[in-house]
Amino acid sequence: MDLIKIENVTKRFANHVALDDVSLSIPEGSIYGLLGPNGAGKTTLLRIINRIIAPDSGRVLFNGCEMSDDDVYRIGYMPEERGLYKKMKVGEQAVFFARLKGLSCKEATSKLKMWFEKFGIEEWWNKSVGELSKGMAQKVQFIATVLHEPKLLIFDEPFSGFDPINANLLKKEILELRDKGATIIFSTHNMGSVEEVCDHITLIDKSKNILSGNVDAIRRKHGANIFELDFRGTEKELLAALDGCCEVMSVSTSPVGFNKVKIHVADDADLRGVIAKANESVELRSFCEIIPSMNDIFVRAVNGNL
Amino acid sequence: MIMKNKIGIIIGREFNERVRKKSFIITTLLTPVLMIALMMAPVLMTLYSEGEEKVVMVVDESNVVAPSLISTPEVKFESTPLPIDVAMHEHTGCFAILHIDKDILENPNGVRFYTNGSTSIGLEHNVVTQIETILQNEKLKMYDIGNLQDILASVKTDVNMQSYKNSANGGEEAETSSSVVATVLAYILSFVLYMFLLIYGSMVMQSVIEEKNNRVLEVMVSSVRPFEMMMGKILGVACVAVLQIVIWFSLIGGVAYFVLPHVLPAELLATIELMKQGAPASGGVDMDMLQAMMMLTNVGYVLKVLASLLVFVVGGFLLYAAMFAAVGSAVDTPQDAQQLQTPITLPIIISLLVMLSVINDPTSSLAFWFSMVPFTSPIVMMARVPYDIPAWEIAVSIALLYMTFFAVVWAAAKIYRVGILMHGKKPGFKELWRWIRY
């Protein structure tokens, strides 16, 4: 079941097209990565899902129905540029945002106390936001975003500005929220985090959806038939054996006799034959495909060589 | 239902943030004190200057004037037998030396006043008036009329005019109207309006710019519609403004109710009560003061003024705040706002200039038209309300103001909606116009 379905959405601004006929579906309970270079239209898409701006054409379905104003209560949004009122007290401010999302004052306060305890920041309650560091303020913002337990969480660049410890904490929380049934969309440039947490991705470039799907499937699909062989023996024998059936990309040797060779196999090549020849010449310890990182795929897709 | 609630939450936040600020509490309490101090200043100054006596040495060659000059607490006249050139060297420590020629009765221009320091117009006026009276009396004496003093005393008459509104013209009872009070009120009220439009209006703008820079708007806008955000902010600030007015008037009213009766002479208050019942004023009381007091104790009149003040402050503020909010949403810094702000502040300044002429002639066509045009009407109409102007004019002016308010809010909301998400470029008027139609 898709929680969000975006159908042929187009959005034009004064002198450029921000989104050009973009369609994608976000399965319920998934963590969905929205990737793309700067200015590709990611934030515009997130704003459309948030109902901050309306698309010129196309539609957005939430849970199978066209979105309405009340759906904002089921969405939590943390924009890339974090914003809090500097002069307001932390606790008061979090209650204010929670009330805008439809929680009662009492409900908001008790839930907030719980979260503050969880993050170990109870003593911040009466501090004004101006006294907090950037990372501290982001924690508060994160809590304000997830407090009303929305079905859909949208994070724009969630890990920017966090130190590794807090970034891990955040990752853990995001995974936990997913396990509790939330669907999470986040836009990011951080490909490492995409491989780690995302189930699905969409790559947007120049206002168009150029790549969509399951992360593992995409990586396998765009594997470039590159394999790495781990072996004991002399590389000369191996190279001689492989000569003609594949292209050797790199060789690394070690003094204790454990060597590595990276090869590129043609699409129609007989992989079994390659393994058999290698096996005959040296003591093969491993043979595995090098699956491209999301980073590689991202760069290749944006440069148009996918 | 839910939408109303959200505006309520935003109004609450805006209101609480401002009212809890120290600066709000201080200005709210200090302004009436300052206003009262300002009104008391002339009285205090007279009291203060009375303590210091100025000595004027008189060299009277005619010997007609000097014996009749009467010293007041402010100025003391001392005759000196010295000739003028000697006196001018001797008496450098006194305030001034008055020199009167021998033939003063024939030639009234023979009066000279040599001051040792700065001069005082009030004192000079006093001296001239005294000399004139003395000379007139001397000249009258020459006609040799018997019991001249008695005749003069019985001829002397003081006229006090009381102005009333023509009660045949719809009024139920004879009301007095004091043009002095109306003028003072007109000044105060239109300045109150001016202050609220400009100060509170730009307060809205500042806070929109601040939120935009803070990027709080991005967070807010995902749960609240831009229109609700804008209205919430404007209404929140309006509540602060109304609260401030209410506090001021209750302070002033409290002072008037509890303190004035103890300060004013009881006789005056009794006369006011009598006059209200239609009795003519008895002599011996300062008429201007009396009329002023009557007008200010006339509950109907005071209520009319206060009600109009509230309606025009709220309407005018909403109108201007919406425009200020739109400008704030379109720019990144207060500096960028300067250019876009000019067309908003211009009508406010024009109304202030028109107000000055309105006070001279509240029924002129200039006054009428500027009190109808919605952008100038709050200030100009408020300057006219203390005078008796037809109720329909006030009604039409209010209707026009509130209609314009809705149109402007609609346009401002459009600009706001686009503006709050725009960063990094400074739009011109053309751009804003596009956003409205967009």
Would you identify the regions of chain A where 5 or more consecutive residues have pLDDT less than 50?
none
Number of helices of chain B: 16
Total number of helical segments of chain A? Answer: 10
* Succession of helices and strands of chain B: HHEEHEEHHHHHHHHHHHHH
Mean of residue pLDDT values of chain B:
81
Detailed description of the structure:
The complex is a heterodimer of chains A (306) and B (438). Chain A is α/β, with parallel strands linked by helices. Chain A has two domains: 168 residues, Rossmann fold (3-Layer(aba) Sandwich); 67 residues, ACT-like. Chain A, domain 2 (Alpha-Beta Plaits), CATH 3.30.70.1150. The longest helix of chain A has 16 residues. Chain B has 438 residues and is mainly alpha-helical. Chain B has two domains: 91 residues, D-Maltodextrin-Binding Protein, domain 2, CATH 3.40.190.10; 261 residues, no CATH class. Chain B is built from 16 helices and four strands. In chain B, helix 6 packs parallel to helix 11, helix 8 runs antiparallel to helix 11 and helix 11 packs parallel to helix 15. Chain B starts with a helix and ends with a helix. About 1% of the residues of chain B have low confidence. Classes of the chains: A alpha/beta (306), B mainly alpha (438). At the A-B interface, strand 6 and helix 2 of A face helix 1 and helix 7 of B.
Could you outline the blueprint of secondary structure elements for this entry?
The complex is a heterodimer of chains A (306) and B (438).
Chain A: E1 2-12, E2 17-27, E3 31-35, H1 42-49, E4 57-62, E5 65-66, E6 75-78, H2 90-100, H3 105-118, H4 134-146, E7 152-156, H5 164-179, E8 183-187, H6 191-197, E9 200-205, E10 208-214, H7 215-221, E11 226-232, H8 235-242, E12 247-252, E13 258-264, H9 271-281, E14 283-289, H10 294-302
Parallel strand pairs in A: 3-8, 3-9, 6-7, 7-8
Antiparallel strand pairs in A: 1-2, 1-4, 4-5, 9-10, 11-13, 11-14, 12-13
Chain B: H1 2-19, H2 22-50, E1 54-60, E2 75-79, H3 84-90, E3 96-100, E4 111-115, H4 121-142, H5 148-155, H6 179-214, H7 216-221, H8 226-263, H9 266-276, H10 287-296, H11 299-330, H12 334-360, H13 365-370, H14 377-384, H15 391-419, H16 429-437
Parallel strand pairs in B: 1-2, 1-3
Antiparallel strand pairs in B: 3-4
Helix pairs in contact in B: 1-8, 2-8, 6-8, 6-11, 6-12, 6-14, 8-11, 9-10, 11-12, 11-14, 11-15, 12-14, 15-16
